[in-house]
Specification:
The chain has six helices and five strands; from the N terminus they run H-H-H-H-E-E-E-E-H-E-H. Strands 1, 2, 3, 4 and 5 form a five-stranded antiparallel sheet that branches. The protein is globular, with a radius of gyration of 28 Å.
């Protein structure tokens, strides 16, 4: 009887390990595909390839803006509002969150842009949200920086409610350095003088 229990336990542990490994493999593949698609989206925007950009955009975003033409006009307007400088390169990307529900995957990807504002170096951080409906193979995106977090639920009604999407930010390093207060050293206390005492008789 003990041998039977041991065999059953070993089988359960083996199946559990295989299931965990399969999940890890699925996550790795989904993350890799998400990053590749996101890089294509970012390059399409950078090089003004609006057809490719639309192909990689979430259909719900295109619908929200009234159709392909209206969506393109919105995207082009956002591009020229923050047009890349000649010395710039496409934004760098990293996944900050990846979740799945059966065959649907969603991701939050951080994009960091190194640019110049008023002649000063600036670092702009913003986010895109990705969705895959085929097990993480193909991805479509919504650029959160083109909208507001409040509107995101209307643009993307099926977004996972537990996704964490940070607020975008712009940092100008030189201004941070300039704004740092000068810390003055506190004056050191004067050494105590020893008072000579007469020896007792």
């Amino acid at each position: 009887m003990k041998l039977i229990y041991t065999t059953i336990l070993a089988s359960v542990l083996s199946v559990s390990a295989q299931f965990t490994q399969a999940q890890d493999n699925d996550s790795t593949l989904a993350a890799s595909n998400a990053l590749k698609a996101a890089e294509s989206l970012i390059k399409a925007s950078f090089y003004q390839d609006w057809k490719s950009y639309a192909d990689l955009s979430n259909p719900s975003a295109i619908k929200f803006y009234g159709g392909p033409q209206q969506f393109k006009e919105h995207v082009v307007t956002m591009y020229f509002r923050n047009e890349p400088k000649l010395e710039e390169k496409p934004e760098t990307l990293r996944i900050t969150e990846l979740r799945n529900d059966v065959d649907q995957w969603q991701s939050v990807i951080e994009k960091v842009r190194n640019t110049f504002i008023d002649g000063k170096k600036a670092i702009i951080t913003s986010y895109i949200v990705g969705q895959s409906l085929d097990g993480g193979k193909t991805w479509k995106f919504i650029d959160v920086s083109h909208n507001s977090l409040e509107n995101l639920a209307f643009i993307f009604p099926t977004i996972f409610t537990d996704l964490t999407i940070p607020l975008g930010k712009t940092v100008i390093p030189s201004e941070i350095v300039e704004a740092q207060p000068v810390v003055e050293e506190a004056p050191k206390p004067a050494p105590k003088k020893r008072v000579a005492t007469k020896p007792r008789k």
